[in-house]
Write a sequence for this structure.
C-alpha cells in the first residue's frame, strides 16, 4: 500500500491498523472456510440440507456459491480492490449465518455446522458458533471502516 | 425468525450505503461475480453428485421418497397416535441394556453404536407400511438422527422421523412401554425370524 500520498483525507493510524487486523482475520477465516467447503461441496450440500431452511434445489447451488462468495469476498477485503463492497457482502453472509445458527438453536436441530467444510458428527452447531460469527462480524466491520483512500477507488 | 434478522440486517446496511451509489454498484458487481463463478463451477465440477438424488440403488426414487426431509421431528403425541393405529415402526437407538429395561411397544433395538455393522449384514425387518420413527434417550438426540440418516441411506424407502425429546419425553407423558429382550419385532405384526445376536456383531 502506498502511504502518505493521499493527504486530502488522512485516516487516523489506529484506524488503519485496526482495519488491517480486521482484513487479515476476515481474509484468513473466509479463505479457510471457502476452500474447505469447495474441497468437498457434496458434504457441504448435505450440511445445508440438514438446516431444514431451504428448498432442495438450492442445496447444490448454495454449496458452491457460498464458498465462492467467501473466497472472492475475502480476496477483495485482503487485496483492497472493492474492499468495502467485499466487506458488505461478507457481512451480509455472516449475518445470514448468525440468523441460521440462531434458528437452529431455537428449533433444537442437532446438526453439523459445515462452517469450514468439515462434516464430522461430533461438531454440532451451538452457542460457540454463534459467538464466533459475531466476533467475525466485528472483524468485518473493522475491515470495512477505513475509508477507501487508496488507488483502488477512482473518485 | 431467520428472515426477520436477515431483513433487519440488510435494511440497516441498505440505509447506511444508500447515499453511496458507487458502493452499491460495487456490491452488485461482487455478488454478480460470485454468482457467475459459482454457477460456472457448478456446471464444471464433476464431483457434484446432486445431493437431492438418492444415493442407493434407486429403489426409493420410484416412490418419491428421495426428497423427504430425513431428520424431521415428530412430537410425542403424534407418535403415540401413530402407534395406536399401528402405522409406525419405532427404532430404538439406545444401548441394548436400556432397550431391555423398557422400550416403546413394537420397537426394534438398533443401538446406534453398532447400527452400521448390523445393517451391513442384514436389512431391518421393517414392515412395508407406515413410517419409521427413530428415538434415543432424549434431548437433542444425535443418535436417533444418525440412525434416521443411516436407515434412509440403506434403502428404507419410508418417511423416517425422529421422536422429539426421545425416550424421556415418551415416558414423561406415561405413554405405553414394554420391557424385555426381544431384539427385532416383538410387535404384534412380527412374522420375522429370530434375529441373530447383535451383541456378537458389535
Amino acid at each position: 500500500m502506498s502511504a502518505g500520498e493521499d493527504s486530502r483525507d488522512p485516516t487516523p493510524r489506529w484506524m488503519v491498523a485496526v482495519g488491517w487486523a480486521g482484513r487479515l482475520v476476515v481474509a484468513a477465516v473466509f479463505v479457510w472456510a471457502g476452500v474447505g467447503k469447495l474441497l468437498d461441496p457434496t458434504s457441504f450440500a448435505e450440511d445445508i440440507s440438514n438446516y431444514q431452511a431451504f428448498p432442495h434445489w438450492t442445496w447444490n447451488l448454495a454449496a458452491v456459491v457460498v464458498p465462492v462468495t467467501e473466497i472472492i469476498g475475502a480476496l477483495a477485503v485482503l487485496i483492497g480492490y472493492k474492499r468495502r463492497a467485499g466487506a458488505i457482502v461478507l457481512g451480509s453472509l455472516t449475518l445470514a449465518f448468525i440468523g441460521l445458527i440462531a434458528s437452529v438453536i431455537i428449533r433444537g436441530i442437532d446438526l453439523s455446522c459445515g462452517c469450514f467444510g468439515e462434516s464430522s458428527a461430533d461438531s454440532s452447531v451451538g452457542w460457540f458458533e454463534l459467538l464466533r460469527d459475531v466476533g467475525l462480524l466485528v472483524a468485518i466491520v473493522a475491515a470495512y471502516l477505513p475509508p477507501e483512500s487508496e488507488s483502488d477507488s477512482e473518485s | 425468525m431467520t428472515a426477520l434478522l436477515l431483513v433487519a440486517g440488510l435494511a440497516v446496511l441498505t440505509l447506511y450505503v444508500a447515499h453511496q451509489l458507487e458502493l452499491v454498484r460495487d456490491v452488485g458487481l461482487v455478488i454478480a461475480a460470485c454468482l457467475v463463478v459459482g454457477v460456472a463451477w457448478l456446471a464444471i465440477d464433476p464431483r457434484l453428485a446432486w445431493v437431492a438424488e438418492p444415493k442407493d440403488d434407486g429403489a426409493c426414487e420410484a416412490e418419491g421418497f428421495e426428497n423427504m426431509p430425513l431428520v424431521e421431528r415428530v412430537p410425542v403425541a403424534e407418535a403415540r397416535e401413530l402407534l395406536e393405529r399401528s402405522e409406525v415402526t419405532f427404532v430404538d437407538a439406545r444401548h441394548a441394556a436400556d432397550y431391555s429395561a423398557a422400550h416403546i411397544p413394537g420397537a426394534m433395538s438398533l443401538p446406534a453404536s453398532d447400527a452400521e455393522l448390523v445393517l451391513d449384514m442384514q436389512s431391518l425387518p421393517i414392515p412395508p407400511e407406515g413410517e419409521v420413527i427413530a428415538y434415543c434417550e432424549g434431548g437433542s438426540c444425535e443418535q436417533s438422527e444418525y440412525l434416521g440418516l443411516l436407515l434412509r441411506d440403506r434403502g428404507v424407502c419410508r418417511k423416517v422421523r425422529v421422536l422429539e425429546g426421545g425416550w424421556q419425553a415418551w415416558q414423561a407423558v406415561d405413554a405405553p412401554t414394554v420391557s424385555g429382550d426381544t431384539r427385532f419385532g416383538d410387535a404384534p405384526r412380527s412374522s420375522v425370524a429370530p434375529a441373530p445376536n447383535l451383541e456378537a456383531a458389535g
Summary: The CA atoms of residues 34 and 66 of chain A lie 8 Å apart. The two ends of chain A are 18 Å apart (CA to CA). The helical segments of chain A are 13-39, 41-50, 57-79, 83-107, 127-144.
